[in-house]
Fold this sequence. Notes:
The complex is a heterodimer of chains A (about 240) and B (about 300). With about 240 residues, chain A is mostly helical. Chain A is built from seven helices and no strands. In chain A, helix 5 packs antiparallel against helix 6. Chain B has one domain (about 10-25, about 40-300): Rossmann fold, CATH 3.40.50.300. Chain B is about 35% helix and about 20% strand. In chain B, the strands form two sheets. Chain B has a six-stranded mixed sheet, with helices on both faces. Chain B has a four-stranded antiparallel sheet with strand order 2-1-4-5, covered by helices on one side. In chain B, a hairpin with a 2-residue loop joins strand 9 and strand 10.
Amino acid sequence: MSTEGLSHHISSRYNEDLERLRSRVLEMGGLVERQLTQAIGGITEPDARVMARVAQEELRVNQLERSIDEDCSRILATRGPTASDLRLIITILKTITDLERIGDEGEKVAGIATRLALRERPHNRYRELRNLGEVVIDMVHDTLDAFARFDTALALAVLRRDRTVDEEYEAIHRQNITFMMEDPRSIRRALDVMWVVRSLERIGDHAKNICEYLIYLVLGKDVRHTRIEEIEKELQAPRS
Amino acid sequence: MEQLVRSKPPEAESGGFPPVSDIDTGVIPMRASGRGMMQVAVDETRRTAALKAPVKARAEALDFYYGELKALKNLNIEIREKQVTALIGPSGCGKTTFLRCFNRMHDLTPGTRYEGRIMLLPEEINLVARNIDPIEVRMRIGMVFQKPNPFPKSIFENVAYGLRIRGVRSQIRIQEEVEKALRGAALWDEVKDRLASSALSLSGGQQQRLCIARALATSPEMLLFDEPTSALDPIATARIEELIAALREQVTVLIVTHNMQQAARVSDYTAFMYLGELIEFDETSRIFTNPGQKATEDYITGRYG
């Protein structure tokens, strides 16, 4: 299925409903992405107001989640969607849950960023967080892009990147254990860093989930809990 | 069986037809993986049973003509025993024509002809062969129509009719069978005290269930439903759907419906037809979550192709 397929129903109101739904998911995704960018930016560039900004976006994100949910139930009740329309509604219902959680994690990162801003900064200025943060922001960005264009190849690329995030998470984890053992005064900061890394890793997982839903939406194939190599094979096969 | 096959059909003698496995039935085998993530819940045991279910009827290269007009084009389809198979498709696609072939409803329309076969199993009788008596076919394959059409007789006589035609004389036996059929059609409790009243005094939903009871009375192997609920309200519709679900314990059901949700609810298999051709045939859960053909998708989601 492709994005233009949304607008070919005999009922024009149905077309409008589905289009509106899709564009609001993208709006929600855009807000979440901005939250995340601000939160991570707050770590590398000290900013005492980052928390307030992120929290403000959060309100709008929550509102959107509720209203998209409501629209989905209305469409389910009144239209009885089938096939790709049904998959679209299911995918959206699940996607917004993951988006909302990405927002929550972003808020946590922003909270820690505010705290870190008040404290002395290490000489590498949290480079490892910045790097991982960039990877994760890219993942979220590409996920939304893939969703906007129903692009399964891009979704697959995001899935592949999740492994990098996991490896990076491991590396930072080990590094911080070393810091803590060397100098107990660094424990507080190391723990904060670990919280951030943990959140970033979770965000990567949520982006991955959304990409898996998207593959289901477009191809009707359930690729959750499947190894990446198998997903690649599945995507090449014409039809399961 | 003897009375059904008046003389042995010539095609049965001439070496028969290729084995089932060589015929393209459009049946797609169960997928090894990749079931839809939230596909309409399919009870696994039922699903396995469905796949093991033997074939009850099989259309083989079936063509049907109304005069010059070719209404059915090379249909190949297997109807599984004690399963519900739904036929869907836009008006004029041939689904009702196909359904009617099963109990020879076209015989009285001048200028019609069949090519190909509809085999009824296990005996491998070609239902559309000229030497097969349509009356006997209709005893074994009952039909329920769009509008309830009870006879203008008593409730009892409506159900007893088929038995009498069959030559059942014993009053006791007829009474037993009538009660059984009315119970089978979930109507007994509502009419047991008024069996002598006119069938036309029943409500539309009750009349439709009476017609189902009438069809059940001759213990058919297969029941054909031609949009059985299109003239009924939602509650009567729900009752009929309940009944269809219960009926599949004993008979094979073939149903034509314009109501997509109904097809999705009541059937195990769905065939999508378009312009006289079979476009797609698959498990219902598959057709309604992830159909293989774009034409099917466009139709069930309400798109123009």
